[in-house]
Write a structure and sequence with these properties.
Largest sheet: 8 strands, parallel, barrel
Strand content: 25-35%
Strand order of the largest sheet: 2-5-8-9-12-13-14-15
Number of strands: 29
Mean pLDDT: 95
Structural class: alpha/beta
Distance between the termini: 48 Å
Length: about 525
Amino acid sequence: MKKQLLTFLLAGNSLMAFSQASVTINASEGKHIISRHIYGHFAEHLGRSIYDGFYVGEANTKIPNKAGVRLDVVDALKKLKIPNLRWPGGCFADTYHWKDGIGPKAKRPKIVNTWWGGVTEDNSFGTHDFLNMCELIGTEPYLAGNVGSGTVQELSDWVQYVNFEKNSPMSNLRQQNGRQAPWNVRYWGVANEAWGCGGNMKPDYYANLYRQYSTFMNTRVGSNGKIFRIASGASDNDYNWTETLMKNIPGSLMEGIAMHHYSVLSWGEGKKSSATQFTDQEYFKTMQQALLMDELIEKHSAVMDKYDPEKKIALIVDEWGGWYNVEPGTNPGFLYQQNTMRDAVLAGATLNIFHKHCERVRMANLAQAINVLQSVILTKGDKIILTPTYHVLEMYNVHQDATMLPVDVKTADFTTGEGKLPAVSVSASRDKAGKVHISLVNIDLAKAQEISIDLKGIRGTAVTGRILHSASVRDHNTFENLTKIKPAAFTGAKLSGDKLTVSLPPVSVVVLEI
């Protein structure tokens, strides 16, 4: 009997296996601000993102809406405090002609969305609809201009249409269409993925084209503002693209340069792993791709530093997230996928990386907001799911516009047959009220992490926290169980003077407040 009891206890201890990590937070060295715009989102005319996602139409009487925009979505995004929203693409942007989406809806021309599913786009959701929706949500619009199939005049006219207050052909047209005051749109993308779906251009060619387009964009916003022009940047590790643009585009013509990186296993059709039924090996590889973001930002930043040592030009990661196979039975061109605890730790770890590099990374856009890729919201009829990714971004929004506090992390590894990765990811910030927030992520599938944190320059009196965690990394919220995964109070942190100890369960995200 004693032997059986000993065997049981040993087995129990193995189930509770943990690793140790140490973290030092250097509060006195904090000087850079974590821009709230790092928490941006993305709404492309793709699948059920716009239609049936954000927009259900003015005639819909079953789903509460304002001018066709779902009010439950508006409320959810307000709580998320989204700072900006990118539209209308993506690949769709370089086939979109904005004048097709203004004026009486019955007279707007229809087009075919050749990029995403070959569906007919009726242009019922256009410039006014999007910009008015941004006002409703309380977020800044980020418009992606058509360079691939558009003209310099077309983009110049769009800037004038939405931003110019006085008498002009485009401002007069805006007023004829029912909007008197300009929207004062600050963020403008000059093409999307010019190296691919935006025209398959070479970097030298695009750099010259960008110079031409940006020259004719009216740079004034309101009485004393200036637009923020973002060049179509590199895919992943194409450092030559960044170098060519930085070398050939004057700083006076460019405020930001983009970079895209997805956590994807393979670009082959059907080879990206299931969103919910993935293997442990696929989980490891996905996280490996997510953590690669750190290296990509460091190396693109190093290139930018050669030409812009004062870091006046921002690195804009305006597409990021996990990309998996679509849900069975859905249109492959709609990119609809579920969202699990894998996505939660992916989001938390990525945001920690953005915080670390906030001096150069001053905007980012998760792809995408609703019903596409790593969504924060999924919709079905009058129901919406707030995904695990939603909850992580809501927990993390305490970092918006706070001062980043440098962290030094020594962590055990998450090890599989595929290799090893750092198990623990950490970031910290101090807000304007003096409160310190610490975000911690444990990506290990099996081991809890016992973390000792040295709070240099922080004199806390109490610690509270919230955790996002579930029994399985594959767990997710469904329309039958909307709240299987949601934040809960966290009691695994103990504060003693300037020392903090934290017990972090496997596959979990925690945000502490001191």
